[in-house]
Amino acid sequence: MSTLEAMTLDQVVDTARYPLLEPEGAQAQAVVSRARHELSTHGCTVLRDFVHPTQRDVLQQECAALAPRAHFDVETVNVYNIAVDPSLPADHPGRTPFARGNAFVARDRIPTGALISRLYRHDAFQRFLARCFDLPQLHELADPYSGLVLNVIEPGREHPWHFDTNEFTVSMLTQEAQAGGVFEYCPHIRSAQDERFDDVRDVLAGRGERLIRRLPLRPGDLQLFKGRYALHRVGPVRGGTARHSAIFAYSERPGVIGSVARTRQLFGRVDPAHLAAEGRAVRGDRLLD
Question: N or C: which end of the chain has fewer CB within 10 A?
């Protein structure tokens, strides 16, 4: 058993600020109430210094050691993560291409004893997140690759404007870029019923400053985000240090596995589980992505 596996939750999380094991206490309820309010109002909330101060260096070092395991590829994409279709109207935002140069370390390449893996699997952490999102329960993805990933953006690269497939995202910065790499988002820019192509087009064309929020993040901060309806990006990373962030993927229903095409795009390979699940995906809306 590694040192981290032997640790208790309050050695990993600053439970003095975030009492995950005392969900009925006044402080825990206040944290959840604030998170729900900010998610409803802004589509995003940040739990500053969520990781215990004594473990932030461990967090950075572990994830930096994992970064070389990332699958890296530069792809031409649009905000909807679909092919740039020339048959779309000339002013359609899906006609705007971007070079995506970020990379992902898949879950099967992250040791189970790593701090981010222990957090991802911890029942109290999952119950806390469910309360923040005002959901009865969260389930770990059944996907062997994308349930937990480390996102790596090297200097000179960016994660361009896009929407998420999942309605909500949980992430944690583990290493800051030397410069750049700022998280930007447009809360509630679309809904399940309305793509609002005009506003999306304005942002892509540089005319949508009124719609954009910029969010400074530090290693150990936990970010809860409704990325299905918020256009967002990580701007270009500059300097000599890559930006690393852990992404904790959960679903409201059990058994969720990514598509073969999307999995191959992100990780350069697929598992038999992806092949077996192909064609059984269930969509909750009719949005483009």
Answer: N
Fold of 3-268: Jelly Rolls (2.60.120)
Domains in the chain: boundaries: 3-268
Phi-psi region of 220 (alpha: psi -120 to 50; beta: other; left: phi over 0): left
pTM: 0.92
pLDDT, tens digit, 9 for 90 and up, residues 261-278: 888 888 989 999 899 988
Share the mean pLDDT of the chain: 91
Residue 283's pLDDT band (boundaries 50, 70, 90)? low
Q: CA-to-CA distance for 47 and 45, rounded, in angstroms?
A: 7
How many other C-beta atoms can be found within 10 angstroms of the C-beta atom of residue 240? 9
Read out DSSP for 35-91? Answer: HHHHHHHHSEEEETT-B-GGGHHHHHHHHHHHGGG-EE--EEE-TTSS---TTS-TT
Token pair listed for 239: 């300097």
Dihedral pair phi/psi, residue 215, rounded to 5°: -125, 110
